[in-house]
Amino acid sequence: MNNIKRFVTRLLKDLFNEEDKKELVDILTTSLEEKVEDLVEQGNTREEAIELSIKEFGNAEDVLKAFPEYEKNIKNAVKRRRNQLLFASLAYLIVTGLVAYLNFQLTPDVLWFVFIAIALLFWPLVMLYLYLTARR
Fold first, then answer.
1. Could you tell me if 88 and 110 lie in one domain?
2. Which pTM does this prediction carry?
């Protein structure tokens, strides 16, 4: 039955927090194990029964249909990440603009603001990564 537990764990990998996921893995694994036992009683081999029960089970989207509040949480997370990306981008532009202005006013012959701009660029890039991950 390790195949079933592995399947369910992979299926729910990034979908729930650890506590909820552990409970859900146990419930779904038990359900699939019962299905396997029924199929074995009907004359299938254990391997065939495991394969059939996994095929009939479906994918992560089928499981999520049973949890409509989770989809709402996903949409809220994506919206939150988008707002964080917009804030980080705007703040990057403001700070970089201010530093560039100071650079050209104080020491126009040395372009030191470029180093600060490159260093600050990682903030919106991380927010972009988190946003794209949340959308996935």
1. yes
2. 0.54
* 58 and 103, same domain (yes or no): no
Domain co-membership, 39 together with 84: no
Q: What angle do CA 19, 24, 27 make, to 5 degrees?
A: 135
Sign of the torsion angle spanned by Cα atoms 83, 84, 85, 87: positive
Pair 29, 5: CB distance under 8 Å? yes
Q: Which domain holds residue 130?
A: 69-135
pLDDT in tens, the chain (136 residues): 566 777 777 766 666 666 767 777 777 788 888 888 888 888 888 888 878 877 777 665 666 666 666 667 777 888 999 999 999 999 999 999 999 999 999 999 999 999 999 999 999 999 999 999 888 7
44 and 31 in a common domain: yes
Helices (H), 1-136: 2-11, 18-41, 46-57, 60-64, 68-106, 113-120, 122-135
Structure token digits, residue 39: 């199929």
